[in-house]
Specification:
It is a single chain. With about 425 residues, the chain is an alpha/beta fold. It has 3 domains: about 150 residues, no CATH class; about 90 residues, no CATH class; about 160 residues, Glutaredoxin (3-Layer(aba) Sandwich), CATH 3.40.30.10. The protein contains 18 helices and 8 strands. The strands form 2 sheets. It has a 6-stranded mixed β-sheet, with helices on one face. The protein has a two-stranded antiparallel sheet with strand order 4-5. The longest helix is centred in the middle third of the chain and has 21 residues. The two termini are about 40 Å apart.
Length: about 425
């Protein structure tokens, strides 16, 4: 799942949305060998090499056309070869944190480079402190093919977790662990409760960025009255900080407030009525509009696939969405691609088109995109952003399934997880059949 700011080449490879950052010691200094061997490129030189590589890969990716699984597999192999060639002569274990950070964007693009990076992190993960915690998280993230809430929940008990809570790894652990079950989170209830005081009006933005995951975890692990009290405190701290902030920091805090106050943030998504989705534009590839509102679909199981034209993994999952549309009768199941105005349409078979400030143009271009890509399901543009706060969407593609009464039955799935999505649909269809 990926964010808008990431390059299409990165999105096409479906990398982790959470950056891997090199660990720092308790005093804030980089955890790395004391001396560097002569002749090792500087961090700036390595960063420049990475930039040149990504620029060349971007150009090659744009010539692929429709990103079929076969094309993407071949492209990934080509990328890995180029990364390995760039790393020839470099011993990752000898690099300091600054140099490793410069290389990090490409270390996950090659299996052999990833293996070498994990070996370095595993060695640095042995320390029972913040540095060890961060290295442990990084190595786990590199080893996972998909986020594992249970594995991240276990890391809440790491001796360096509390110290590293404000780091990107601390935020990532809270964010992923918050999706774990009550059984996995309750053993860490005391740790979670002890963190409440850290989320205050003077806390750094890096820590407040973890507030969403923290509140979700508290809502699962703690008694309702304690979780509610912590929520009230954290929201007040966010609002106080937002009132005093300006520029980018103010925008970040505004997004955080919207996120924690959304249905998912309040713990009121699964089992509750579908949050408002204002469908400003609904269309099939032939230009017809089969319905106007999600409410019109009551009586059907509804699969919502949140996506955008610039999102490589979203487009890469189109074959699975098409197969799902083909598999289920339209009278029983509706499949809806949910997107929002992006100011551009990233065509796969023609030049990208800028549509900033021209919604009609973007709708028309989106329709052409649908025709080009063989979209067989309905697409809706909503007034709400595709990174919908009520659904707690932090990355796309993101799939939610609504039951026949319009309530959210499942959320947070990836289109590629066809087994889980179909199991949810089949369960709902079976329940409805029994009622009948």
């Amino acid at each position: 799942m990926l964010e808008l700011a990431l390059l299409p080449i990165v999105t096409s490879l479906a990398l982790s949305a959470t950056p891997v950052v090199i660990p720092f010691a308790q005093d804030g200094t980089a955890t790395a060998p004391a001396a560097q061997a002569a002749g090792i490129p500087s961090a700036a030189e390595l960063q420049e090499k990475v930039g040149v590589l990504f620029e060349s890969l971007q150009k090659e990716y744009e010539t692929l056309g429709e990103p079929t699984p076969e094309k993407m597999a071949a492209f990934q192999a080509q990328v890995a070869q180029k990364v390995d060639a760039m790393l020839v002569g470099l011993n990752l274990a000898e690099l300091d944190s600054e140099r490793l950070a410069a290389l990090e964007p490409v270390l996950r693009l090659s299996p052999s480079a990833t293996e070498r990076f994990i070996a370095v992190l595993s060695e640095r993960a042995k320390e029972p402190n913040a540095a060890g915690f961060r290295a442990t998280v990084q190595s786990k993230m590199l080893s996972m093919t998909a986020p594992d809430p249970l594995a991240f929940a276990a890391l809440l008990g790491h001796p360096g977790f509390v110290e590293a809570i404000a780091t990107e790894e601390g935020v990532a652990v809270l964010d992923s662990a918050s999706d774990a079950s009550a059984d996995a989170l309750k053993p860490h209830a005391a740790v979670l409760e002890s963190l409440a005081g850290k989320f205050n009006a003077e806390a750094p933005l890096s820590l407040m960025a973890a507030s969403g995951g923290y509140l979700r975890a508290c809502g699962t692990a703690l008694p309702k009255e304690k979780a509610t009290a912590i929520r009230t405190q954290v929201v007040a701290a966010l609002q106080t900080q937002e009132a005093k902030a300006s520029g980018r920091e103010k925008k970040v805090l505004e997004r955080l407030i919207k996120s924690v106050n959304g249905a998912a943030g309040r713990g009121e998504l699964i089992g509750f009525a579908c949050p408002t989705l204002t469908c400003d534009w609904v269309s099939r590839a032939d230009g017809s509009a089969p319905w106007k509102s999600i409410a019109d679909l009551k009586g059907k199981v509804v699969v919502l696939d949140f996506w955008a034209t610039w999102c490589g993994p979203c487009i890469g999952s189109f074959p699975q969405i098409a197969e799902m549309r083909k598999h289920y009768p339209e009278k029983d199941v509706e499949v809806v691609g949910i997107t929002s105005v992006q100011g551009m349409v990233a065509h796969q078979k023609r030049e990208r088109v800028t549509c900033e400030g021209d919604v009609k143009k973007e709708r028309a271009e989106t329709l052409e995109f649908m025709k080009d890509m063989g979209v067989t399901w309905t697409v809706a543009m909503t007034a709400e952003d595709v990174f919908n706060n009520d659904f707690g969407i932090r990355g796309i593609p993101f799939v939610a399934v609504l039951d026949q009464d319009g309530k959210v039955f499942k959320a947070g799935m990836h289109p590629s997880d066809e087994t889980a999505i179909r199991a949810a649909i089949d369960e709902l269809l079976a329940k409805n059949a029994k009622k009948g």
